[in-house]
Amino acid sequence: MKIVLDPPKSIIADWRNIAGKYGVDNETITFWMSRPEPGKGPTEHLLEHLRTVKRDLTIDDFKEVLKDCKRFDVLDILKKNGY
User: Fold this and answer.
1) Which helix (H) or strand (E) holds 32?
2) I want to staple 45 with a disulfide (CB 3.0 to 4.6 A). Which of 32, 59, 66, 83 is the partner?
3) End-to-end distance of the chain based on CA atoms, in angstroms?
């Protein structure tokens, strides 16, 4: 999933758009972009953040945001992995 969401996109939604849907502020988004960790991209930061802050978030809720962002490619990845 991070392979398709991490690279910045100008035409389609990327991880930043998804973060925005969950109310992640621009400072946090900028921080994740400016502090890369080996083997850990911004999508992983976002998912960890959501696990911590949005404890009641379900995979179905996440899939609805992906639909709203028109990220059907990511939905396909989730489906292929049993989600």
Assistant:
1) helix 26-34
2) 32
3) 12
Cα pseudo-dihedral 51, 32, 4, 23, rounded to 10: 50
Mind listing the pLDDT tens digit of every residue in the chain (83 residues)? 888 888 878 778 999 999 999 999 999 999 988 877 787 889 999 999 999 999 999 999 999 999 999 999 999 999 999 99
Pick from 49, 60, 61: nearest CA to 19: 49
Q: How many domains does the chain have?
A: 1
Query: What distance in Å separates the CA atoms of residue 59 and residue 41, rounded to the nearest whole number?
Result: 20
**Residue 57 to residue 7: CA distance in whole angstroms:** 24
Bridge partners (DSSP) listed for residue 37: 40
